[in-house]
# Entry
Amino acid sequence: MDSQAKKLSLGTFIGMTMALCATVRSIPSVAATGWTQITYMVFAVVFFALPVALISGELGTMMQAEGGPQLWVKSALGEKWGFVTAWLLWVQMFPGMVMVASTIGPLWGNVFGNVPLGNNHWFILANILGFYWLITVLNLRFDMAKVGGNIGVWLGVYIPIVIMLVMGIAALIKTGINPAGYLGTFTWGKLMPSLDNLQSLQYFAAISFVYTGMEMSSVFIPRLHDAKKTYTRGIFIALVGLVLMNLLNAILVANVVPNGKIQLSNITQPIVLWCQILGWPTIIANIFSFMVVIGVLIQLSAWVTGPSKTMTQVARDGQLPASFGYHKVNKFGVSRNVVLTQSVCISLFALLYGVMKNVNGVFLTLTNATTVIYALVYILIAIAIIRLRQTQPELERPYRLGKNGNGLAYFVAFLLLFGIVVIIAATLFASDLTQAVFVVIITAILFVIPLIIDKNKNAEWIEQVNMDLALNK
# Structure
């Protein structure tokens, strides 16, 4: 295949970028903020998603070797902070995968027409533990990377989004704006958080979380025609597409769900309500739920082994104790010890569903914990671009922020830092005290652990790793 054939068109790049962030899981969280979602979404794009994409564009083309954010931070701030970045990208999975898997219980409830069972916190816990451990065992015994592929994205994202849009628009045409819904009648004042709806700030992190993963779009830059113009244009269009996709669906959901009744982990709730309004058979909701649950399971399977490979590489660089065994892999290139460690930790986070009866509260806590941990990675990336402009100004930058000087790069980095501070502060301020304390403590513990490991690092780790790898050749 010649180099010309490998090039990506603008349209393909836009589609691939949107696929990195497209999800239906966040739609109820966006809908719960009513009309204020428009302001939150614009803020999340301007101060979060766009700066991340632009910074990643420069860093990704400077350093095209495998590693992504870990490599960028390591090059700018040293091995220690590169390790911290890899660690944070791994541990954000712990609450993150529980959040994703928590949708399985409500989905099964809708598949079999038993919605109350699907929303029972013990049933949700059982589904998380049962299915995640099943997927873990399958990934250790078989090459699950070959199973599913794009099927998960189609079943879990694209088809459900189209179904929701069609049904939501049809219901809106039939009934108009529902005054008892989360939207209610429109006023300009409803676009901004007010003293009456400050609680909507607790969803701020969840709305921003829609765009995490945007930094991975930088890997496509070498395959773009006229990368400088095409990447920037493509990112803008992809972001507009993601905003419209999320806002349109969230507005339609916010219009149909009665105020105060939204179920954050139950994406099928509006489908059931639309079936009632339109007089359509409820089997649509059953099929929709089954489709999404298969999509979620396939996506979960991909995430079981994906981030674990980074930890295996970190271990092989001698940054983790050899006794952990994270450097050893099976015939599929998967580290059994890494995967089992993350499965145990994910199970511990899942126990929140046993401790707390408020399903919405647990879902929000997990979402906020995941977002805050991930935000620390973005802070390190913002610092990395500033540092690299100072220490390695001569390095070739195929995609560069600003033709001359560092002003634009610094401005974009500070936009991101400002956005992250506002998002985290607003989220913690509006959250229930217990939830806020949990998020802060968990984030602090998971951030300190790699610093302690690094402080105790010694030459014996890499020596033992090299010996083990030499014996297994």
